[in-house]
Amino acid sequence: MMSATQIVKLAPSSFHKLQTNSGRRVVKSSLSILARKITHPRQNAPFASVATPASQSTFRSRAGREPNNNLALGLGAGGAILLAGLHSATGSADDFYDYRFKSNKDPDDLASFYGGEELMELFCVFPIVGQIMMRYAHFDETGNVITTGFPGQMKVSMVFSDEVNDETGATDWFNKRERFRNTLFGYTCWDMVLNFGFRTLEDGSIECYHFGEYFHGNLPFVSQAMLLIFKVHARWVAWATEHHINHYAFALSADTNDDDEENTEEEKLEEYEEYSRSNMPLFLLNNYAWSDLTAMLFGYRKDVSIEKQPSFLVTGRESEKENTNKDEEDESDKIAEVKKLPFQQEAIQKQISEDIASDKQVMKELLARHETRTAEDVKTILARRHTINMRNRRLTAGGKIAHDEDQEQEGVEDEDLPAMTNDVYVLAKDLAVNRAMVRRLTRQRTYRAPDQSSPSKAEVHADDTAVTKQ
Question: What's this model's pTM, rounded to 2 decimal places?
């Protein structure tokens, strides 16, 4: 920028022409105005005398912030839409796992396994998990099991359904439907339903199944993480269950002998059975890891017979692909119908819904009859009901169960009852099994009622004879 002195030097002729003092003052005033115009060109704009430097800087800062605010708002809205879309696509799933394997075990033993505590021990993987999730659970005022969840707390409910073959008397199919509902401050974070059980195929073989019916997540990131964890967990539980059932479970179901060697072998089998279901990872580490590692490095020993088959997790998928490729167009509907598990059939779905409603009604009537007010009252009543059911199972032949609560209490002394358990999950499971047995007996009596009510040939002949005599 040019100063006023420099401008004066550039125009010396003007100074010589104006010699008077007034002329000098006019020239200096003109030159100072010209200098201000050169050094501050923005003041030449209209209304420049009104705008102050402070107001100009505020205007420039606001004009610069408006595009940034619009960009941030757009990015936020786009991120929210993207997050909602990803959560909708990955936060929930139906039929999110399906594992099946064959077993040659007795159907009643399998029903006892899936309806007992053994499955839950394998489900928890480690004993500490079972202690945290189930051993420290409690009942609420309505009889539901409340335990530790992630995050918050989790409500666990279960229902057992089965069907007995009238010809053989064995269990034809068995299903355990278990629901886990996780809440935090009353808000449902995720909701999951699992099915465990077995069915008898047309060729007479037994197929066990583990099936994830649905997982509905409502909490982003947490839902995706829990869904992934349960998928991996389900694969492990299915493999561990198959390994336990087909290798170690029901080893002592046969009659015992007095031979010392056989008793020692039975004690070892019993130890393996308990060890494999209570802590399968440690059991595999102690009994299989070292031998498999040495075999990998040095090969199997010649004096050891090796009979290892590939896992059903691999062979089952390959056989499924082969069956799908064969006659895919002509028999697709038939194959789909055969692959349906019991709880996926319409008639059995109706039965399971009725079983759930029946369980709720029985629990409601039981608690109302005893006028329970607190969760501790609920636990006391259910614990006593559990011990009475256990006594009836042990003392009554054929598993006949009393239906009348007053009849159960009559003639029952405390010393005659088994010790009450403090495990809330065991109480809830045993009570659910007992209700399933009651329903099964009721259905059997209902089905046999028409046959029993119809008169026999001898009765018809006697009636005809009586009429003839009259």
Answer: 0.71
